[in-house]
Amino acid sequence: MKVALFGKTISTNDAPYLQGFIDRLESLNGNVYLYESFFNAIREKIHFNRQPIMFMTQKEIRGNVEYLFSIGGDGTLLDTITLVGDSGIPVIGINMGKLGFLSGISKDEILPALDAIIGKKYSIDERTLLRLETTEPLFGEFNYALNDFTIYKKSLNSMLAIKTFVNDEFLNTYWADGLIVATPTGSTAYSLSCTGPILSPDSENFVITPIASHNLTVRPIVIPDTCIIRIMVESREIEYYIGLDSRIRKLDDPMELVIKKEHFKIHLLRMSGRNFFETIREKLNWGLDIRN
Predict the structure, then answer these.
(1) CA separation (Å) from 47 to 7, 23, 281?
(2) Is residue 271 packed enough to be buried (19+ CB in 10 Å), middle (13-18) or exposed (0-12)?
(3) Which residues are catalytic?
């Protein structure tokens, strides 16, 4: 079994779960690739019987591993997207955090999940990405996102005027703190906290959600993901931020921002017997009687 492990750090309380996972992987006599900075963060807490193979880039694991395990929460999993890219390597999220929409395997389920993966008892979800196109390479070659594109203000004292077109047809000028363009995967993230709708992962849509709109009648809108969205900030506020998932850039000049569907998808591994609706019932406490 050839696997890659990505993470940021591990708490002392969670270290035994990761140790058991490492021990099991080593017993399989496969190749274990470990993200180098993650190794440096955990080397005092985790014992390795065999030296793992270090990696830092997509090139080093492309074609060399069967799976990539994300050890952490949803934010950690989002950071794996630039490592996986269009390689087709399935990503498995091991949730060491709390909510974990994307990291669907809890730390208590690590070893049974690994056995299920060895037995090929899983499904692959293909998740749509969005792509940002600009006249300048703001995010280099990693100009795509699994969750969302965001634009938001820098100053606390004024709003942004965000002029938005869909397929060259004028949609709206949003007077707001910002704007979110989310994929179905991202519909349960920042967009949801701004009253955006939940989209099922296989729905072929984007949702455009304003952040703290000045006009209370302006609501989120769902559009087909075949649409091309063009955005331009038109306001007295010169400096503002844009983000692709957890990657942020500050802009201080007007610039046309074009969002469209990326040509490849990310493969997320899902355990057999699990489904999206079960996840949102569990994570959002749907159907829970809170009267007692």
Answers:
(1) 16, 9, 37
(2) middle
(3) 74
> At CA 214, angle to CA 208 and CA 216, rounded to 5?
75
Domains of the chain, earliest start first: 2-128+265-284 (3.40.50.10330), 130-261 (2.60.200.30)
pTM greater than 0.90: yes
3-class DSSP state of 174: strand
Torsions phi, psi of 97, nearest 5? -100, -140
CA–CA separation, 139 vs 134, rounded Å? 10
Q: What is the pLDDT of residues 226-265, one digit of tens each?
A: 999 999 998 766 789 999 998 999 998 888 999 999 999 9
Residue 9 burial by CB count (10 A; 0-12/13-18/19+): exposed, middle or buried?
A: middle
- The three-state secondary structure class of 118 is helix
Residues 6+ apart with CB under 8 A from 265: 126, 127, 128, 129
